[in-house]
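Researcher: Sequence of NFU1 iron-sulfur cluster scaffold homolog, mitochondrial follows. Predict its structure.
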Amino acid sequence: MAAAAARLAWGGAAAAARLRRRFRHIMRSPHIIKKQPLHHFVQRPLFLLPTTLCTTVRNMFIQTQDTPNPNSLKFVPGKPVLETRTMDFPTPASAFRSPLARQLFRIEGVKSVFFGPDFITVTKESEELDWNLLKPDIYATIMDFFASGLPLVTEETSSGEAGSEEDDEVVAMIKELLDTRIRPTVQEDGGDVIFKGFEDGIVQLKLQGSCTSCPSSIITLKNGIQNMLQFYIPEVEGVEQVMDDESEEKEANSP
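Model: Prediction complete. Tokens:
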């Protein structure tokens, strides 16, 4: 029995020695095994998330643009806001139909808010307020809102400007000229102009956004809008600005 055990032990040792020699031969041969970096042997994930899914709205890039009104600034979030229309919020009370407008009014120093097709105009209370102090809160509010997924407007309201079958030819021409030639230019400056009526040759218009309290709004109204309307529509004798109750109250309380 002892002899048999010795033979088995010797045979096992000899087999182990042969395996070690064979392994060393394989490892020394460059044609049999190609050395691979260690990370090649790490188990790969089943799939990779696309980078677009990893980019949150929090990282959205918001641009700012100056307007003719030094107290108004355009914030361009790089995505549609109201797409084809505009909404004006001259006072905090008027912001009941928009969660974003309500949040912006909570920032100290914000006087009014205006939504355009692809921009948001914020007007501050006075020139003494520094935009560098207001902009961080405005940026954060806009980014947080778009990240929340809430609707921009919760209650639709009519601006009363849409064309009607009851409009006569002159009014229809005025509205078409406003929509195609005048409003796009005014919106580039962070505002808008709304048709309110036509009576005795006078076109009644309401200015919104940055145009509301702009020092050059009267010049824009008379030298720009009035001249263009009179050039194309001889029936137009003049243009005047009208205000709703909220705008009149805000102007009366402004310093």
